[in-house]
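Lecture 7 notes: from sequence to structure.
We start with the chain below.
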Amino acid sequence: MPGRLATVWRFRHFWLSLAGLDLRVRYRRSALGIGWSLLHPVVMTVVFCVAFASWLGTGDWRTAAPFYLTGLAVWDVVKHSAVQGSLTFLRNEPYIRQSPLPLAVYTLRTSLGTSVHFGIALGVAVLATAVLHPADHLTPLYVLGAVLPAAALLLAFCWAVTALGAVANVFFHDTQHLAEVGLGIGFFLTPIIYPKERLAERGLGFVADVNPVVAFLDVVRDPLLTGELPSAMAFAKAAGLTFVAVVAAVAAFARFERRLVFHL
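Predicted structure tokens for the same chain:
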């Protein structure tokens, strides 16, 4: 493992260049450029504020908008990591066939792109919170100390999701479609457009307990909106999920990396 990590780092210019190429190609000749990555969460937030703000118990769009923006930022990075991540090795097949680099190099290519979009979306959520729902706790130091560590955990978890999806899709090409269907259902079972308490009121509290996205909402969104640091239990749950996912991804590479190229 140390040797593989050293190889990944030694070829950092390669996967950084690939990630940059993806962003350039995606927004080439686009009027808004990378601003398109903000259009979806902003438009969806406007729709949610109009249609579902009353579900939060206040009906105030100034309170609802940061809630939705932050929730969508967390959800979108997980969704894109699963759906786009499952195509990682198929997209990079020419490189994989010609070079013996560790496969983690190509998962980093995908993860960096999703991380850039997540960083922009989270920045907009922080800015919206500061403008629409100002509070004394929302200082740069607080954001750095309370939100960024949780965001880093989330991105590590998303890398593992990308890696596991990429490996699974090589052997079972319906993985991407299953991920899209499952996440479409999961969106409505995740407290993004309603508070988590609504699930408990309907006897579905266990859904929130087993939903990994909820664990990251607890440590990313709640501290940002409430000014209260996540409990040790909440942070430990998010860290535990990240650890298990990363270990599973590393184990998948160890088991399948050498023969994966024969199934592409």
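Points to note: Residues 140-171 form the longest helix (32 residues). The mean pLDDT is 85.
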